[in-house]
Amino acid sequence: MSNYYYNGFILHRRSFKETGLLLDMFLREQGCVSLVLNRKPSSRSQQSNVLQPFNYLSVLYYGKNELKTLKHFESLSTYCVLQGKYLFSGFYLNELLINLLDKFQEMPRLFDAYSLALQKLNLKLPIEPILREFEFLLFEELGIGIDCFADAEQLPISTSFYYRYVHEIGFIKLKHYEEGSIAGKTIIQWQAQQWDNDELSSAKQLTRQILQHQLQGKPLKSRELFKKIRPHSNS
């Protein structure tokens, strides 16, 4: 059994059998893993506070199967306490990682982007740019990146045209505007991550289209929760 500790974030926790706890984690050197803690800590204990989503831990685990056993853990930072729409945005990021990444798929660049996104959410910075930038990088890491520099014919994106995005092909240049098409100017703004209202709205529509395809229509719980609180939020 290895005594190597891995660092990462808790994405989700739930009860396992009668006394255990199952943790989904995103580790910098291991990607997404599922760990079982055979004896769940008391709800009022310090350990229970540590084992919460978004907390950054060092973990030691073992096992030959995909589901590993957590042997030891310790907190590496103060607790990340997100609230309201920032909390549900964090849950949204976690759901994307759990649903789209294969187990033990090492992605250090995406890990660093996730860590930065949590920091920004914790600081209550504007949510939409945080989510769009993370989604764009996630797609790139999954090999389905949105090429904002060239269309499907490998010609530079032009401000003179509108484009339609097609999965696994890219941006198709259109002769004229069509409903749901994207202005070349908007795509070029995405290159520089310049997120004005029009750019954010178009990017959100596109990322939802791609996610629906990748998730095969599977709904995201965090999105449903956010819809419930949105009428009462200031966003």
Structural category: alpha+beta
Number of strands: 8
H-E order: EEEHEEHHHEEEHHH
The helicity comes to 25-40%
Number of helices: 7
Largest sheet: 5 strands, mixed, barrel
Kindly state the mean pLDDT as a whole number? Answer: 89
CA distance, first residue to last residue? 49 Å
Strand content: 15-25%
CA-based shape: elongated
Strand adjacency order, main sheet: 1-2-3-5-4
Low-confidence stretches: none
Describe the structure in your own words.
The protein contains 7 helices and 8 strands. With 235 residues, the chain is α+β, with helices and mostly antiparallel strands. The chain has a 5-stranded mixed β-barrel. Strands 7-6-8 form a 3-stranded antiparallel beta sheet. Helix 2 runs antiparallel to helix 7 and helix 3 runs antiparallel to helix 4. The chain is elongated, with a radius of gyration of 20 Å. It starts with 5 loop residues before the first strand and ends in a 6-residue tail after the last helix. The mean pLDDT is 89.
